[in-house]
Structure formats: C-alpha cells, structure tokens
## 1
Amino acid sequence: MTDLTSTPSAYTGPRRILSGIQASGALHLGNYLGALKRFVALQGEGAPVFVFVADLHAITVWQEPDKLQAQTREIAAAYLASGLDPARSVIFPQSAVPAHAELAWIFNCVARLGWLDRMTQFKEKSGKHKERASVGLYTYPVLQAADILLYKATEVPVGDDQKQHLELTRDIAAKFNTDFNAPGFFPLPEPVIQGPATRVMSLRDGQAKMSKSDPSDQSRINLTDDADAITAKIKKARTDPEALPETVEALEGRPEARNLVSIYAALADQTPAEVLARFGGQGFGAFKPALAELAVEALAPVTAEMRRLMADPAEIDRALARGAEQAAGIAEATVAEVKDLVGFWHRP
Ligand code: AQP
C-alpha cells in the first residue's frame, strides 16, 4: 500500500459518522455487537450519523431479485429495532442514491490495481475460483470508499474485518486530493473499531469469525433465533475443559473462552476484566447459562420489534424514503464538486 495516508488530513469540515450493513439478510450476533449496537451508541455523540443498507454491495454475490427488497427492509428493521431513530439519524438504501455508483466509477479510476490485489476479503470470498467471482466483488472496497467519502464521513464504526478496506478508502481520498490539487477536499476517515466485540468469533471455532456464510448454523446466533435456539447454541458452543481464569491475560491461547467472555462483556456493557471478576474460577457449566440468559434478554426485544416492523413495512419505508432524500441532497452536492474537480463538462 502506498504511504499517502501518513500525510495528515487537511480536511477542516465537520465530524460525520457513517456505516452500513449489506442487504443480504441473515443478521447475526457479530453484526449486532460489532455494528448495530455501536451505531446506536454513536447516535448520542454530537455528530450526525448516516447508516445505509448496502444493497449495491449485496449484489456482488447473487441475490434472488424477489427477495432483495425484503432483505433491505429487514436490515432497516434491525436498525430501527436496535434503537436508531430516523428523526436523528439518516437511514437509507444505498441504491436509492445514485451518486454512490457515480462516485465509485470515478474512484475506480483513482484506485490502483495493486491496491485491490492486496485485499484479503476478496481472496477469502472468491475462494479457489476467483475467475468466476463478479467484477463487483473485486471492486467492492472502491464502492465502499465512495459510500464513505460522498458524505465526507470522518468516522466509520466497523468490525475488525473492515480495517483493510478503510485503509484503502484513506488511500483513495489522499490520492484524489493530490491528483486533483484539492488538499483537504476529502477527509481521511478513521475506522472506529472499539469495544470488546469488534471480532465476534464462531461458536464452533474460536479462530474463525462469526459469519453469515459459515455453512454451520450452530456457529452463529441469528437475530431471528428464538430463546430456545439461542440457549441451545450457547450450551453447545465449543469450549475447553478449564474453568474461567481470573485475569484477561490468562485467556491467551484459549480463543473459545475469550470469545464467550467478550460476548458477555459486550452484551452487558462491561469490560472482559469485569466479567472475569465475577465468573473467574467458575466452569462453563455455570457461565454458559448466565451468558444465554443475557443474550436472550438483549436480543429478544430487538427480534420482536423487527418482527413487528416487518409485518407492516410502511413504517420502514417511510424512514427509508426520508433518509434517501436527506442523503441524496448531500451526496449530489459532493458529486457536483467532484465532477468540477475532474473537469467534466457541465451545462454553462
Ligand atoms: N463476527 C463479527 N464480529 C464483529 N463485527 C462483525 N461484522 C460482521 N461480522 C462480524 C460487522 O458487521 C458489519 C456489517 O457486515 P456486513 O453484513 O456488511 O458484511 P460482512 O462483514 O461480510 O458480514 P459477514 O457475516 O461476515 O458476511 P460474510 O459471511 O458474507 O462474510 C461490518 O461493520 C462488519 O465489520
């Protein structure tokens, strides 16, 4: 990667927070703790929060056309049910703001092939048959850079897996500002990767990320799981035979134990040290039921509210339409400035 981003940002605009989740449905505990719960916390931070449903990103892998709209509404329902307030935050579907695709094209001409070649997520997602992957899957991080920079976002709350993409966004911003002699035009956004659950791991393998594409449903807690399913999955979660240690350092080399302690901490708004102060010395026979109870308590209201919203999507659609209009106003202004900088023709 180039070292463009080591240059301090000359951007002087206001703070803006932005993030999104793909419209591929199937939200899990990793998305809830690593993304949703944190978006809601940031809502009170004094900077506007933009949260979109990434349906353009979703189609980088095949999506059934008759399901995509419902999946988009489902993510929006998760936003609302988790506590995002459409009166305070801008919630919108990515495809409803055409400027995302427009800026992504211009960024495709700024980003270098070598930069994209290094993206580990493409390698993981395309697997052994990369020649069969869509071109969109390859340029996915360029669209992500457009999503962020259209709104001149300064902070992007994401899970640990998105760190490399954020670095690419910063490189694209820095190169654009340099190439078009516009110092400080785009900010160099900061990834906000904080809290005990930036990387929630699979319940079956403490070395693998909890992910919707894991073939084992036992590996994850879905936001659609009921109390019995959540309890059963936590009970069956892989662990080691030792009792929980007294200190965080002693979790070293025990990935499954670390994962369950981190999940507990994130759900209870505690630090892992606080969790171990209570459970250190106890076995998983005591810890797992406590964790299951906490997970059910935290997720049941979100799941119930999502179901209510999905049963009558008018409320979701109103929030999305309002958000799309607000987002488009800002995005179109940025694209107009970008076109001027690039030198495109415009009506005299
Ligand atoms: N396991 C995780 N722990 C913490 N955060 C996570 N995120 C995803 N998995 C975890 C965060 O959730 C946000 C939205 O993710 P996404 O749906 O846009 O895409 P993703 O990261 O590709 O989600 P999955 O489940 O991991 O999908 P697959 O299986 O397709 O790869 C992001 O902020 C992400 O960091």
## 2
Amino acid sequence: MKESLYINGKWVAPQQGGTVKVTNPATGETVREIGYGGRADAVKAVDAAHDAFAEWSAKTVYERAAPLLRLANLIRENADDLARVLTQEVGKPLGESRGEIGAGADQFEWYAEEVKRSAGDVIPNRMGDKRHLTIRHPVGPVAAIAPWNFPILLTARKIAPALAAGCTVIARPASQSCLTLLDMFKLVAAAGFPPGTANLLIGNPSECSEVFLEDPRLKKISFTGSLEVGRELYVECAKRMKKVSLELGGHSPFIVMPDMDPDEAAERAVFAKFRNMGQVCISASRFFVPNAMKTEFENKAAELASALAIGNGLDADTDVGPLFLPKRVEDTARFVEDIKSKGGRILCGGRAPEGEKYAKGNFFMPTVATDITPDMLIMKEEPFCPVLPIIGYDDIDDALRMANDTPYGLAAYVATRRLDWAVKAAERLEAGIIGINDCTPAAAQCPFGGMKSSGLGREGWRQGLEGYYETKYVSIGV
Ligand code: NAD
C-alpha cells in the first residue's frame, strides 16, 4: 500500500515514492510494505494542518467533541482487528494489545468530555473601573511524535487533547510499528473531522522533524521517546522558541516493604517486569527487597518467571512475546554478561530460548538476576528489557535513597500494606507516577509524566489539555 499518508483528508502516496517494510518481531516476516515519506510530505502535512486550523479552532467545544467521541466508539468497535495488527508489528500478546487499544479509545472519550469543562477565569478586579478575564486559545498546529512500543496509546495521549483544545495535528509514528496507527486513521477518516484537522505522516524522522522545527506555522512539538532524541529536540526547539513537551525514558524502582509476604511481592514484581517484555517506559526496572526475605523472594520470582510461556503474541497460550528488534536482544545479553562479570547471579533465563519456534524471532527468556550492585550497567542505563534485577536492603531510608539515585523520575512502585510506609514513600520518591500496590497506574483521567530527566509537562487528566492552550488575559475598562 503506497497511499499510507493521510494528509488534508486524503490517503496519498509519498511524493518521492519511498517504501518501508514493517516486520513481525516473532517471525521475521514482512507484515506489510507501505509508503514512507520525507521532507516534501512533511511540508504538505504542515500546509494542511495550518490551513485547517482557523475553521477547527473556531468550532465550539461541543462540535469538536462529537468526532472525538465517534472515534472512541469506532476504535472500540474495531478493537479486535486493531489488536491483531498491533501484536503482529510490536510482538506483545493479544491481551496486552487489546488493553492498549482500549486505553487509546479512553483518551478520545475523556478529552471529548473534559474539554467541555475547560473554562477560562473571571478574575476579581481591584479597580472599580476594570474587569478581567482569561480566554483559552489553542496553540496552533501540533506535531505528535511517538515511539514504537505503544503506537496507539501514546499518539492518542497527544492528539486527543490537542484536537479537543482546537489544535490541528500531524501524527508521526515510528515507522517500524506504524500499521495499527495507519488502520486507526481509517477510523479518524470515518469519524468526521474536517480535512487537514488530523494528519498522519509516516516518514523519515530527521527530515520530518527538520520541517516541524523550521516551519513557524507549526507551533508545538509533542514528543515521546528516548532521553537522547528528546534532549536533541529540546535544544532545537529552544533555538527557535518553539513549544515542546517531552515524555522520555524511565528507570523505575519497585520497593518491597518489610511487611510484605515475599511470594505475593514476587508475583507482583514478575507481573510488573515482564509486561511487553520490559519494553514499557514505566516498567519497574530495579527491585529493592529486604535482605530478611531476599532468598524467598528470589526463589519465587525465578519460579514464576521460568513458568511464563514465551511465543508469538497471536497464540492464545503466550504469556510473553518477542523483543521488538534484534538490537534489543543484543542489549539484553549485554546487560546479562555485565551482571555476571561483576559478581551478580542469574537465577533464571539469561539467554535466548532454543528451538525451531524461536529461530526467526527476537526472543529472550524472562530473566531474574540478583546481588545487583550500583556499578552494573543495568542500574545505570534504561534497560527496556526482560531482566528483573534484585538489590537487597536493610533500612527503608536506604532503599528510598537508592531508588532516587537515578537521573530518571518517571514512575516508582511500592508494595506494602502499611499506610505510614506508603505515605512516606509517596512523599519521598522522585517520580511523576507512583504506584502503591498498583503496577499499571496509567489512565486517561490521571496525569502521566516524569520528573527530572524523564520529561517536561504532563499528559492525561486535565493537565493534558493545558499543554495545547495559550492563556489570553483580557482586561476591560468599564
Ligand atoms: P526514540 O527516541 O528512538 O524514538 C522516538 C520517536 O522519535 C520515533 O518516532 C522515532 O522515529 C523518532 N525519532 C528518532 N530520531 C529522531 C530525530 N532525530 N528527530 C526526531 N524524531 C526522531 O525512542 P524509541 O526507541 O522509539 O522508544 C523507546 C524510548 O521511549 C524509551 O526511552 C522509553 O522509555 C521512551 N518512552 C517514553 C514514554 C513516556 O510516556 N514517558 C512512553 C513510551 C516510551
């Protein structure tokens, strides 16, 4: 399919005729070959988003909410088909794919409703002959850049509030996993947005970003991805005074408090770690466990991780799928070798599974490692891999200090039944999202985003709309 770009209400082929193959990480097979755009297509997309802005931003919130709600419903009606494609291109098991599709629909529904309550202010006047009020004004055309791991949810987190606020949008997904979003845009086309309001640009990241940065008609870049690319964009946006919001990487601690049953804690830890094989920005990736229960926790975690069924995400009995790219398998092996070379122990996994079933995919066994020390790579780099590293501790203050000892601050998890420990941890952990006995805290109606190097701004909740508004203050002499 060459006509893979949705620009100005039409499916079009890239101007220079390039294509890209999307590969199934479980089988190595091509899922689809589609058109892949570049600079000239990015310019067309900005033209369309710019031209559509005046009409879309002038609509009432009720008029803007209607197609957003229709889209939420269409996504839910087509969830099974979308989920299958998502599993084929990203590798996650079907259940996880259905969860992502549902969470994407939630974003459109939530913002269709929330925008009706996003009022300006009437501010009390000090001088008798003045009146003051604020008006919320959409920032303008926005580029929404998303990574490969949650292509629907992460794009929806940006374009749902942007469209609700009155901005027009250009969605630019990672080309290696753009098919589900491409299919979702067929639903965007059916939902009744005016041409140019919501555009899909599949194409070369640097060329597209150069256009987004250089063109003054494009008012904001909303980016989710790695710290490295996010930092680069931040610098380039600063040079041009272009608005930017950043959702970046994480290295989330998971603290098991001393009151926990070690088996129950291990069950939660294994669930938290191996969702999407650890390739989630809020994946728990450093597990702090009291030394008094460390051996029991290790044994149970290794037993549960070894029992996870590895396979093609489309198979009903698969618990964990492949990693996304061969490079992720190499990186995981690198973390494992580094742990071994520095005195850590691999309790299970630690290598690719053997057998015909795994020969063509990017598979790695769920791995539990212990006796982890701060000098190991897995404690320093964002792992994004299926390794559950265990660090023993004796004192809760030490655990909290080690948990905060990272430049990242996206999510943090605590397992405890003691309210005082839960409150203390929530207050002291340096993270934008804190899950107390909750390993999947993300929700459309709640704020999502990072402290420290994990980002700028928040998505979700009413804060998600704020990033797409300018506040205009109007002072009236009477
Ligand atoms: P990445 O930074 O390599 O790519 C992210 C997006 O940026 C992709 O669409 C990519 O094509 C594009 N891109 C790459 N180079 C670019 C450039 N020079 N200019 C503009 N765009 C460019 O990240 P990734 O490997 O796709 O995703 C994994 C990372 O994303 C991890 O660090 C993960 O933690 C992070 N992430 C963060 C969140 C969050 O909400 N905070 C969510 C998911 C993933």
